[in-house]
Amino acid sequence: MASSSVQCCSVWVPSLPNLNTNTLRFLSFNPNSVAFSSPSFRIRASSSSPTLEESAMSIDNLRRFINLNSGKWNGSFYQFDSCGNMLQQLSTKLSASSYGEDELMSLIQTLYIKQPSSSTSISGDDNDAEWAEYKIKETNMFTADKYQQIGFFPSERAFALRYQTAGMLETVLRQGVLGEDDTGEESPRNLKLPSRRPSVVCENCLYSLQRDKRARAFHILEPKGTVDMLIVFLEERSDGAPPLLDSSKDANSRITPFLGKWKGHSITKRSGVYGSTIAKADTVVLHEMDHNDQLIQDVTSISDGENVTTNVHWSGRISEYLVTFDGGYQMILLPGGMYMGCPCDIAKSVAESKSFHLEFCWLETPDKRQRLVRTYDVQGLAVSSTYFYETKL
Question: Domain Biogenesis factor required for ATP synthase 1-like C-terminal spans what residues (predicted)?
């Protein structure tokens, strides 16, 4: 097995420039050291009023975010356990529109969940299926900035959001699996529901580079800080049939597409509607299997402007759809050229005053992939997001 004198975590986020004491500064990525300069770092102080330029940019970003989400989306909903095994597949529709102007704009969304045939139903005809309706809370300037701590990349068409509960996802599962037969039990038989008090609920959304399609991936972490479940909405803005993930259960088919050398660029932004850019970098990532059937990953990054080169190397053990890396980070392989990454135990990171990262990768074609990494501080605040676009060499 290949070794290194320094064990490193599996997610690399570009170094941030030197900032004042009210902003973040990223240090070397070593699991034995605190990832940020201080365990008590915070988002930039909000006591000072935004400048006219920041206010105008925030309004423009909110408008672009609403336009990006508006429309009618046909989708497929997938639930996976912490090891990447598919538990449920359901059909959904989402209708999104807006009202108001400038800083008073709001995004309103209604989710429709296809219900199963009732045990008392006689028909069973799919055309007679009932759709349950769920009103999603409005998104506006205040909620996006303060509660959802949005990380938005308008040009790249990607965003990350924070949720305080998994209530919407529980509703989808109850309506889509139990339907009219739901008796309201807290733990229905043969159905795993998300924790009522999750420690983190994170949505990372990436849009297709080729079609009017997107993938919304949710990390749901239980109160103890380990993965409760993973959720993926695969949606297309059209009136046709909903897109579907590859249903193959072959473990090799999930890791093979990621093997090889990838070259790309990353952008890191602060959380918030204004979301100023704080770092850019060029990256080269190599994934390969060694003679011990371990996944080896080498990352080289050169930061823009400062011309600082960072090299990271680690190895990971593969078990079915789960890759566990040195340093306590895991990659959960999903069908459809996707994986989701997170620490094996977030509670341990918090106890050691370390930040942590939640990652979503979508390899839509064999030679192009996108990644979105959400960075949290020890208090569970989403302080920044990093978008990667990479092509295979």
Answer: 256-392
